[in-house]
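Subject: mismatched residue count in predicted assembly?

I count 306 residues in my input, but I want to confirm that the predicted structure covers every chain. Input:
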Amino acid sequence: MHSDAAEIKKSVRTYMMVGAALLVFTAITVAVNQIHLAIPLAITVALMIATLKASMVAAVFMHLSHEKRWIYWALLLTAAFFVVLLSVPLLTVSNTIGKPIHAPSAAAVAEH
Amino acid sequence: MNIPYTVETRPDTGLANGKLGIWLFLASEVMLFGALFSSYIILRMGSVEWPHGELNVWLGAANTVILISSSVTMVMAWASLKLNDHGKHRLYLILTFVLAAFFLVNKYFEYSGHLTRGEGPWHSTFLAIYFTLTGLHGLHIVGGMIVMGYFIGPGAKMWKTKPEQFTNRIEYTGLYWHFVDLVWIFLFPVLYLL
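Triage response: the counts match. Full output below for your records.
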C-alpha cells in the first residue's frame, strides 16, 4: 500500500505536467492560426498538434500507457474500423477529387 | 447477490468487468463520432467553398482550456481516492462538474449568438455539421455531468461501504470524461480554425 501511494503521488506530478503541456499546445494551435498559413499546411499542423494532445490524454489520463492486453486488442480493432470509416468519403468521391461539385444551372433544370 | 468482478479481476481478461465494459462503450463512441467526422469530410470535399472565421476562436479556445482543466481535476478526483482522501476527491469532482457547467454556459452564448442572427443549422452546410457535432458533444457533457452529480450526491455513500468499487466507478467516469475531452481536442481545430 505504501509503494502504491508513492506511485500515485508520482503520477499526480505527471498529470499536472501533462495538463500544463496540453494548455501550452492549445496556445500554440491558436497562435499558428493567427499567422494565417495556407489551408493545406494549416490543416496538417492543427491536426498534428491535436493528435499529439489526444495521445497525451489517452496515454496518461486514460492510463493507456500501461493497460491490459484485452483493452489494446479492442482498441486496435476500433482503430482499424475507424480508419475504414474515415476512408469512406474517399471512395464516394474518388472520381471527383479536386473537382468541385456544381449545382445544375437554372436553364438545365428548366429543360427537364 | 453480489455482482462478480467489480473489484477483483477476471482471470481470463485480467480486468474488472467495468473496465472492459467502459472501454467497449468508448470504442462504440469512437465509431459514432467517426461517422460524423466522416460526414464532415464528405461535406467539406463536396463544397465549392468552405467558410472561415464564422466561429469565435476565443470562445472555442476558452472551452478547450476549460475541458483540459476538467480532465486534470477528474484524474485528480480518482488519484485522491487512491490516496484514501475522500474530502479532496469530492472537491476535485465538484470542480470538474463546475468546469463542465462553464463549458455549457459558454456553448449557450455561442449558440444563442448564432440563432439570434438567424444562423441556425438550416443556414449553411457548415453550420449544419457544426450544430450536429457540437450538439452531440454537448449531450455527452450533460451525460457526464449527470454521472458526476450522482457520485457527488447519492452515489457518494458507497465510499463508506465499498471503497474499492467506488474508486473503480470514479475511474470509469474519468475514462468517459477524458474521451469527451479528447473529442473536443479534435472538434476545436476542425470547426473553429480550419
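Chain A has a mean pLDDT of 85. Marking this ticket as 'not a bug'.
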